[in-house]
Amino acid sequence: MAIDYATRYESQINEMFSRKAFTDSAVNDNYDFEGAKTVKVYNIPTVEMGNYETSGFNRYGNPEELTASVCEMTLKNDRSFTFTIDKRNNSDTQGALDAGAALARQIEHVIVPEIDKHRLKVMSEEAGVRVIKNGHMPLDLIMEVSNNMTDENCPTDGRIAFITSKFHRELKQDLMFTTASEIVHELLVTGQVGVVDGIKVIAIPSSYMPENVECIVVHPDTITAAQKLNEYKIHDNPPGINGWLVEGRICYDAFVLAGKEMGIGVVETM
Fold it and tell me: What is the pLDDT of residues 185-234, one digit of tens each?
């Protein structure tokens, strides 16, 4: 005679692993996209210095007319999602399909990683400094990138390096690397694992990085991140559904400001 074994479902949900946003500290939000899809920013040049003459006209030199160029930033990513939760399904799973928790899960596991990956892709594509790994030590590579950025007048304070797990493993083998456990002050950057010459080092999942890129060093003044229409809605018993309809929409993008490309450096593999 067959025995029907009892089955029990626990109310505790087996949540997926997740991480908070990695790139928020590496971007700025200096430009307001509310009420506009495109923002235009003026770029004003400078003029060369010359020698002052003590006689004649135009003693300061021949004046040049300053002209302003315009950088246009247009939001390209208009993203959305939707799902339903039937009231009976929620009841039969002991409330495991709670709409509010499901929405929070969607934001944390899908939206945040998508934005992080897009920002890193923009950084990689627009980087003004590029170094080939070619067997060199990771710490030396970060220093080479950083030195090239310094030579182009990029500010030295506030730089952040994003590295893959493979690059992190190799970096830890260098005795000159200052690990997170050796940092006395409170770590203010999500995921920070150490410091290289004052650059905060953040280890991220390798899947976040663009192909053939193992390290990105960036100054936050270089790239601006725009978001608008961050709207998430839970409709209780909407027409045609006994339960909940969850919808969300977000417009986002990232832009490297004109003339600041040298504020980003990447380490690439061959």
Answer: 555 456 788 889 889 999 999 999 999 999 999 999 999 998 887 889 99
238 HSE (CA, 13 A, CB side): 11
Sign of CA dihedral 219, 222, 228, 207: negative
What is the phi/psi pair of residue 112, to 5°? -60, -50
Closest CA to 19 of 261, 252, 197, 203: 203
**Which residue intervals of the chain are DSSP H helices?**
87-92, 99-106, 112-126, 138-151, 165-171
Q: Tens digits of per-residue pLDDT, 230-253?
A: 889 999 999 999 999 999 999 999
Is the dihedral angle over the CA atoms 204, 205, 206, 209 positive or is it negative? negative
DSSP string, 25-43: GG-B--S--TT-SEEEEEE
Query: Which strand (E) or helix (H) includes residue 192?
Result: strand 192-196
- Determine the 3-state secondary structure of 157 from DSSP: coil
DSSP H helices, 137-196, are: 138-151, 165-171
Residue 114: CA count within 13 A, CB half-sphere? 16
For residues 257 and 199, what is the distance between their CA atoms, to the nearest angstrom?
Answer: 21
Place of tokens 């919808």: 247
pTM: 0.84
Q: What is the dihedral of CA 270, 150, 260, 63, to 10 degrees?
A: -130
CA pair distance 229, 117, nearest whole angstrom: 20
Q: 226-229: long-range contacts at Cβ-Cβ below 8 A with a sequence spacing of 24 or more?
A: 226/29, 226/31, 226/33, 226/39, 226/73, 226/75, 226/251, 226/252, 226/253, 226/254, 226/255, 227/29, 227/33, 227/115, 227/251, 227/252, 228/33, 228/34, 228/75, 228/252, 229/78
> Could you tell me how many helices (H) and strands (E) the chain has, helices first?
5, 12
